[in-house]
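Fold this complex.
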Amino acid sequence: QQQVKQSPQSLIVQKGGISIINCAYENTAFDYFPWYQQFPGKGPALLIAIRPDVSEKKEGRFTISFNKSAKQFSLHIMDSQPGDSATYFCAASKGNMLTFGGGTRLMVKP
Amino acid sequence: DAGVIQSPRHEVTEMGQEVTLRCKPISGHDYLFWYRQTMMRGLELLIYFNNNVPIDDSGMPEDRFSAKMPNASFSTLKIQPSEPRDSAVYFCASSLFPEDYEQYFGPGTRLTVT
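Structure:
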């Protein structure tokens, strides 16, 4: 499986701030880029996803920015809340086999 | 729908013992995935099934691991014999690909091998 590199490994943000998590991939055949959110003791759950034919997708406070030429994509969480504290995984796939990044543990301080 | 169901939620066993993890996918989903999550290696895909048939098992670490899906509503992941390095959280996920790319994860089984 091709690697998906995610940074940072951990992130601390004040309530109301912007959280930014970055990912880079190698395989140009990837055609689906989801972000999953995982709370302690739970399985990952899909948060938002994008396809490479668009450069940005926004759902509420969550935005994916996608740079096809740089093979990079990022998750922006606007107005971060303590309830957003979780581990976030980027992923990429060609078809239905997901390759996950290493994860980012986000803590939002009140 | 109850979502993906996994059992047991926690398993503690001694090295050398056989361990069987169980999964019930979401009804109607025709893809089932087994993942392993560790601090060192993150989330790794072990194997996935389509319509009960194993499609890709390249992520299965070694012959001690085996997975079966005897019917559309049940799958098992077996480790025999278990080793301490198998300690991890094992997730099952299902999807309705390609109509829906989302993979729905179960709550996981935390396995500890002593």
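Chain A touches chain B at residues 1, 32, 34, 41-46, 49, 89, 93, 95-103 (CB under 8 Å).
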